[in-house]
């Protein structure tokens, strides 16, 4: 089991460029999440999905888009990158079974927009 | 919306000293989870508390969930340098599939 994998690990974007952050999990989890982490600010939820074909906005969705065509993949799209999107991005998944919503995190993507 | 506040933001201790971080929610929680993030790493799940007044232990770590299910604490006894990292609490409301994370407490342990 690789768990949750994310690519790329690092990326530098110019203002106005677009990119897709990839996230894949091999645990057959229904629930997947995208967070951004800024220094000293904890984790803020961008988008989440409770299953293939279903996505919903989190706390900070502006400037981002997601899709969930398969159980395994949950890519995050940045359109027209802005310096405010400089952050570390974490993808996470959980089974959502019973009372346990333990989240498994990927290694993160460190994004700089200049 | 729901807010989860965590204090202190930062604590520096000498190895062997105890450490406690506190978490308070603006709403009653269904459950609370704790995560640890090592420097440069990703958050890793430590534990989940569900019942009012629940206390759980993992070796030197003690986790508590308040009676009103609005606050929680993590206490580390006799810290070690391997305890270095940021500890996050994350609360979930009933009926929701998402967590609200606190800003975390960064722990630095000097040998």
User: How would you sum up the major sheet of chain A?
Assistant: 7 strands, mixed
Low-confidence stretches of chain B: none
Shape field of chain B: globular
The average pLDDT of chain B is: 95
β-strand number of chain A: 11
Question: What would you call the shape of chain A?
Answer: globular
**Beta-strand content bin of chain B:** over 45%
Helix and strand composition category of chain A: mainly beta
Average residue pLDDT of chain A? 94
Task: Return the string of H and E elements of chain A.
Answer: EEEEEEEEEEE
Poorly predicted runs of chain A are none
Straight-line distance between termini of chain A = 36 Å
Multimerization state:
heterodimer
| Major β-sheet profile of chain B | 6 strands, mixed
Structural write-up:
The complex is a heterodimer of chains A (114) and B (111). Chain A is 0% helix and 49% strand. By secondary structure, chain A is mostly beta strands. Chain A is globular and about 40 Å long. The N and C termini of chain A lie far apart (36 Å). With 111 residues, chain B is mainly β. In chain B, strands 2, 4, 5, 9, 10 and 11 form a 6-stranded mixed sheet that branches. Chain B has a 5-stranded antiparallel sheet with strand order 1-3-8-7-6, with no helix packed on it. The interface between A and B is medium-sized, with 26 and 24 residues.
Can you give keywords for this protein?
heterodimer; A: 114 residues; mainly beta; seven-stranded mixed β-sheet; four-stranded antiparallel β-sheet; 11 strands; globular; B: 111 residues; six-stranded mixed β-sheet; five-stranded antiparallel β-sheet; 0% helix
What's this entry about, in short?
Chain A is mainly β and 114 residues long. Chain A has no helices and eleven strands.
Q: Which SSEs are present, and which pair or pack?
A:
The complex is a heterodimer of chains A (114) and B (111).
Chain A: E1 4-7, E2 10-13, E3 19-25, E4 31-37, E5 43-51, E6 54-57, E7 64-66, E8 76-78, E9 87-94, E10 104-105, E11 109-113
Parallel strand pairs in A: 2-11
Antiparallel strand pairs in A: 1-3, 3-8, 4-5, 4-9, 5-6, 7-8, 9-10, 9-11
Chain B: E1 4-7, E2 10-14, E3 19-25, E4 31-37, E5 44-49, E6 55-58, E7 61-65, E8 71-76, E9 85-92, E10 100-101, E11 105-110
Parallel strand pairs in B: 2-11
Antiparallel strand pairs in B: 1-3, 3-8, 4-5, 4-9, 6-7, 7-8, 9-10, 9-11
């Amino acid at each position: 089991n690789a768990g949750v994998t994310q690519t790329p690990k690092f990326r530098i974007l110019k203002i106005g460029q677009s990119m897709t952050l990839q996230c894949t999990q091999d645990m057959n989890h229904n629930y997947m999440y995208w967070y951004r982490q800024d220094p000293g600010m904890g984790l803020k939820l961008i988008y989440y999905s409770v299953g293939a074909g279903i996505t919903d906005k989190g706390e900070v969705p502006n400037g981002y888009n997601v899709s969930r065509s398969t159980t395994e993949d949950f890519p995050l799209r940045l359109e027209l990158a802005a310096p405010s999107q400089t952050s570390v991005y974490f993808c996470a998944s959980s089974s959502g079974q019973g009372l346990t919503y333990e989240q498994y995190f990927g290694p993160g993507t460190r994004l700089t927009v200049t | 919306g729901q807010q989860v506040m965590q204090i202190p933001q930062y604590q520096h201790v000498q190895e062997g000293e105890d450490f406690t971080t506190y978490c308070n929610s603006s709403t009653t929680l269904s459950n609370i989870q704790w995560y640890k993030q090592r420097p440069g790493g990703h958050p890793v799940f430590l534990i989940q508390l569900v019942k009012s007044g629940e206390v759980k232990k993992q070796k030197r770590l003690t986790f508590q969930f308040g009676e009103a299910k609005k606050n929680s604490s993590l206490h580390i006894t006799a810290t070690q340098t391997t305890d270095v990292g940021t500890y996050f609490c994350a609360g979930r409301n009933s009926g929701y599939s998402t967590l609200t994370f606190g800003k975390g407490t960064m722990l630095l342990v000097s040998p």
